[in-house]
């Protein structure tokens, strides 16, 4: 029996269609939330970080952590494992991860015109039109970002991505379910030996990608009959050494018979391949209104393989803390608006797990005592010795890792 993948817009009656199909076919349901839980257990990543892979908002620290790429790899492995269990309805973003070579999948898109979606939002959830539009636009932005991540396609409803696109403002739930069941028995989506082999290849590729991701690598993986191809899409200074490391990791995976590496179309772009080091701080937020100083500091930390982002005022820093997940902050005390002392108070009150290092050129002994009482990890004076600061950052990072171990 075949698999059904259903990707849908919000407020398009997709849940009702899924229930109808499950009642008729007896299929089990695989959702994004189930796969997020599985991916979190496999990788050790918090489920919130895995779930963020579906969001259009990517962490400012992602160039250093590769967390989105790692999350996608985790989700692929979770989905590939679920597909091995047999027929299912895969409902959500994750269904788009199924490779086109697995032909025994009926790929369905459920969407509707805005007036229909607004009506459903009001009837089903009692939302006012303004709030409903806000949620629709936010979810559609996530959908567009997801399609672009996977296919470099900005239209998530593009007919080329699916076998069927069902406009729910033109068909009712019963009719939509009937159309899916009608197409499910067609020869084009029947299981074949070639399609089942493609499913096995998907599982092997996902397993290899997960193993590489665990070691901090971000490369594309394809598999065919035990032959694995790794594509490096960013420049690297010592390509041969990287290739040897990748082959060593991938070659140790059961079922892998051979490993080949190649450079991708983006290899000659300006982006540099950066292996994520789990031992080094990679989510450092620098807060200082002296732009030249803080930009230079950020660059010097990056040269030491420490990932950092910059905020130039207290308001921006607190906004970033609210929507992202810095692990360590380096803050100046004297800034216009919300100063460093207030940032320290608010961060320790709302996100006590964040370690805060105060780096100032104008502080007093009384300031130092107050900062340490408020929970600062360290208090340092400008001009700072970069090696000393690096050591303090490593100690803060080690404290965080020990706490989460």
Automatic annotation (TrEMBL):
Keyword Phosphoprotein: yes
Any one biological process term the GO annotation gives: phosphorelay signal transduction system
Domain of life: Bacteria
Modified residues (4-aspartylphosphate): 332
Domain Response regulatory: 283-397
Keywords, in A-Z order: Phosphoprotein, Two-component regulatory system
Annotated protein name in UniProt: Response regulatory domain-containing protein
């Amino acid at each position: 029996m075949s698999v059904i993948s259903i990707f849908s817009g919000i407020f398009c009656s997709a849940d009702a269609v899924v229930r109808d199909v499950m009642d008729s076919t007896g299929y089990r349901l695989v959702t994004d939330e189930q796969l997020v839980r599985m991916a979190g257990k496999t990788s050790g990543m918090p489920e919130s970080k895995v779930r963020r892979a579906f969001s259009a908002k990517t962490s400012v620290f992602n160039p250093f952590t590769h967390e989105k790429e790692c999350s996608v790899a985790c989700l692929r492995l979770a989905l590939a494992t679920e597909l091995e269990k047999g027929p299912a309805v895969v409902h959500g973003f994750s269904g788009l991860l199924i490779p086109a070579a697995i032909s025994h999948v009926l790929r369905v898109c459920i969407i509707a015109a805005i007036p229909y979606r607004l009506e459903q939002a009001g009837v089903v959830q009692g939302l006012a039109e303004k709030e409903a539009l806000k949620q629709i636009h936010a979810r559609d932005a996530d959908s567009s970002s997801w399609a672009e991540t996977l296919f470099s396609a900005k239209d998530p409803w593009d007919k080329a991505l699916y076998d069927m696109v069902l406009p729910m403002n033109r068909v009712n739930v019963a009719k939509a379910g009937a159309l899916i069941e009608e197409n499910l028995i067609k020869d084009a989506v029947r299981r074949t030996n070639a399609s089942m082999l493609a499913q096995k290849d998907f599982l092997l590729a996902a397993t290899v990608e997960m193993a590489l991701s665990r070691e901090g690598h971000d490369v594309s993986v394809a598999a065919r009959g035990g032959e694995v191809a790794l594509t490096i899409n960013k420049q690297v200074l010592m390509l041969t050494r990287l290739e040897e490391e990748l082959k060593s990791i991938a070659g140790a995976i059961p079922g892998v018979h051979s490993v080949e590496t190649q450079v991708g179309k983006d290899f000659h772009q300006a982006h540099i391949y950066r292996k994520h080091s789990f031992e080094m701080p990679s989510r450092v937020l620098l807060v200082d209104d002296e732009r030249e100083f803080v930009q230079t500091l950020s660059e010097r930390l990056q040269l030491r393989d420490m990932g950092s982002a910059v905020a130039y005022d207290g308001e921006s820093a607190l906004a970033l803390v609210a929507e992202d997940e810095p692990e360590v902050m380096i803050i100046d005390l004297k800034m216009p608006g919300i100063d460093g002392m207030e940032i320290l108070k608010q961060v320790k009150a709302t996100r006590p797990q964040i370690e805060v290092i105060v780096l100032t050129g104008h502080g007093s002994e009384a300031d130092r005592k107050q900062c340490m009482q408020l929970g600062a990890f360290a208090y340092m004076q400008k001009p700072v010795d970069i090696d000393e600061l690096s050591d303090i950052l490593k100690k803060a990072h080690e404290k965080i890792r020990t706490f989460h171990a």
